Task: structure prediction
Amino acid sequence: VSGANWLQLVSLVGALLATAPLLGAYLARVLGGGASPGDRFFLPVERALYRVAGVDPGREQPWNVYALSLLAFSAVSMVGLYLLERVQGALPLNPTEVGGVPSALAFNTAASFVTNTNWQNYAGESTMSHLTQMAGLTVQNFVSAAVGIAVAVALVRGLIRRRSATIGNFWVDLTRVTIRVLVPLAAVIALLLASQCVVQSLRGPAHARTVEGAAQAIYRAPIASQEAIKELGTNGGGIANANSAHPFENPTALTNLVENWALLVIPFALAFAFGRLVGDRRQGWALLAAMFVLWIASAGLAMHFELDGNPRIDASAPNMEGKEVRFGAAASGLFAASTTGTSTGAVIASHDSFTPLGGAVPLANMMLGEVSPGGVGAGLYGILIFALLAVFIAGLMVGRTPEYLGKKIQAAEMKLVVLYLLVVPTLILAFASVSVLLDTAKNSILNSGAHGLSEVVYAFTSAANNNGSAFGGLSGNTDWFNTTLGLAMLGGRFLPIVLVLAIAGSLARKQPVPATAGTFPTGTPLFAGLLVGVILIMVGLTYFPVLALGPLLEHLSL
Amino acid sequence: LRASYDTAVRDVIFVLGALGFFAAAVLFVRACELVVGPGSTLEERRER
Result:
């Protein structure tokens, strides 16, 4: 690893260390209720929105009402986005004069953006109008991210409240996170990106003539404003088909650093916020340590495998197939680990062209359940579910009823935790299995053998974990894949969310028990280590067979 | 005409499919209530 490669990693970690604690402190103030910075400006805006929407911000919701509000909001969002895509041809801000999005693709895309996945079975340049990008997809990038954070904070309230029937108000959480966190941060990042020549334009294509004399249409769109929230909200859906590999989305090393930072900062900051919200910062540090270890290990592995190259081509050179020369192999590996460790899914290189083990890293990262450090909100509630499992296992070892932050973890919570852990793998493995058996589906797979299996498994892993990155090598724009990937995204997003909210409701009602000498301390390096072990063992037990038949077999056949 | 009809039918299928998923998710909420209880304000009041 050269000095320049180390510099990229060190600058990213440095930027995160400098900013995530500060953002975490701010998030804790915003999410904790009570006074928070910017009240003079934000409160009137929020009150106006509550008045228009008929929301009583002082009225809290029990878990089931919170869940039903979230589902109703998402259902309306999905149908609205579907209809916008279908009729965009007759609407303004359509300089490329694209027609309505075909129905199956519109379903897939609506499911994709409402679930914070941003899987894209289309090329933005030739499929979406500026209006759909701005009023449809970008709006969902904001609110789907806010939904994730709302669920995470509802679970935290469940852990810290005593004998409470309620876990907050969904509409208030959604509004506060959007207005106070996502919009201001995204505005700053958009301006920073635009200053680096990321395109921001409502015009149609610019027409140019090449040196050879051919006519060329150069695509223009409001990219900077979408790019900012695409990374910040761990969404990942690019305006351009090449995503963040496109020079109009990510032109320089600096924009690459900013985008890589933006997709990691909120998930890491939420761990800091967690420590503050529960009143014991060591609890936040333990979760943060587990997240960081998993992320940095996967980043190191991806960088190593891509720098090591492909021995069948040139053992002494990095693997540069499918990569941008201005980023190189190491930065591509680092970005791949970050984008799949979070639930972002933006890409600066083709994951399909990675070495077999290099490609296994983003795949395994998603299989971890998006907890390293995970999507905005989804990472925190995901790792908290693993924390409940870890204390349960620790409790089994010593024969005590497990506790987490003073709350007894009993049969009801464990049933829901186990269901949470089963939902996503079931969706992935069932849909992938059927897809490698059906001729209709097999026709979409561009490679044979182990690599072809990896392409299908990657697609459903990405969809059900709400990541959205594509391995490539799969023609997904068919009725089969548009529908099944859409269902995998919906199931992988909302069923776990309902389970998390049910756990939050169950925990909120409990009376905390005082810590005793027999209580397993959860704010320690030992607990962080146990947490990492539990996550890796769970993933190993669930996915090792399919990893062995896909990337591992491909590596051994090199 | 046939093409427009087919397009309309597909739209109905996908919109109803999306709403069907969310209806199933509502049932899933009800199923989870069986495990942990609803925790509704009304029920808590009745308990008290």
About this structure: DSSP finds two helices and no strands in chain B.
